[in-house]
Amino acid sequence: MPLSAYLTVSAVLFAIGAVGVLVRRNPLVMFMSIELMLNAVNLTFIAFAHFLDSVDGWMFVFLVLTVAAAEVVVGLAIIVSIFRSRNEIDVDDLKTLNG
Amino acid sequence: MLFAQISFWVLAVVVVASALGVILFRNAVYCMLSLILNLLCLAFFFLSLNALFVATIQVLIYAGAVMVLFLFVVTMLAPGERIGVGQSDPLRWQWGAGIGLGVILAGALTFAAFTGAIASDAQALGASQLSAQVTASGNTEAFGLALFHGYSFPFEVTGLLLVVAVLGAVALGRRPTRERE
Questions:
Q1: What is the pLDDT of residues B36-46, one digit of tens each?
Q2: Would you say A78 and A12 are in contact if contact means Cβ atoms under 8 Å apart?
Q3: In chain B, is it the N or the C terminus that has fewer CB atoms within a 10 Å radius of its CB?
Q4: What's the pLDDT tens digit per position in A16-53?
Q5: How high is the ipTM of this complex?
């Protein structure tokens, strides 16, 4: 398959993730949409690594994976602590971050 | 070649469908399971692009560890959308606007991918003979060589980042219990 096919799949995935962040109001689902976007970019990196015969794409995917793991850990901790103090999570109600 | 094309299209359909599932399911647990399917299919994409080690860590770390953490939190909080069945969504126009913007974004990115400017620009930067290295020493060895030679400083910074993330999660997690005592 040509490079543009992989890039198209990746573009569609990224757009779906962006729409998810825009339209959903459950912060957990918004987080999942962010993961979707990160993975779309990962697919782009791997496709370029394959078609340019370069190892750099793999390295970037490794770093993106690590950053995504750290982001999920901190983000979920924040969501859990918000849920503990307010007993509901809906981004419409969270206008301030002072809990 | 035919097998490669068939597998590409099947994977592409499943990946896009599961991604749509992530943003369309009402129940967050279904969204979660849809995302796991998406990540597994992406791992197969990585395999088809000869990135064996990256596909493995995609399954182990992403579809395994990160998603289990996610699933724990999702099932613990069990949040549904608060909009009830008979109740009308006060911000229904958000869906239209979001989908419109998403279609524009996908169209722009696809246009950029097909005009070929990105690929030819990148090709001009030169290659580092990845496939020769993979056949000479193996997939994981090629990954490790690149990681510990060209990318050793980012790798060390990654360790720092993970320590900061763990400390942040611990600090956020224990504050309410200390207040309660």
A1: 999 999 999 99
A2: no
A3: C
A4: 999 999 888 788 888 899 999 999 999 999 998 888 88
A5: 0.89
Instruction: Give A86→chain B minimum CA distance, Å.
Output: 12
Check CB contact of B65 with chain A, cutoff 8 Å.
yes
Q: Does the CB of B20 have a partner CB in chain A at under 8 Å?
A: yes
Q: How far is the C-alpha of B103 from the C-alpha of B92, rounded, in Å?
A: 18
Report field, pTM of the whole predicted structure over 0.90: no
Q: Is B33 on the interface with A (CB under 8 A)?
A: no
Q: Which residues contact A34 (CB under 8 A, 6 or more apart)?
A: A17, A21, A71
Give residue B116's region: left, alpha or beta (phi > 0; psi -120 to 50). Answer: left
Whole-number Å distance between alpha carbons of B169 and B9: 40
Residue B107, Cα to own-chain centre: how many angstroms? 21
Contact A26, B25 (CB under 8 A): no
State the Cα–Cα distance between residues A82 and A75, nearest whole angstrom.
Answer: 11
Give the integer Cα–Cα distance in Å for B43 and A23. 27
Dist. CA B31–CA B1, nearest whole Å: 34
Token pair listed for B151: 């990318």
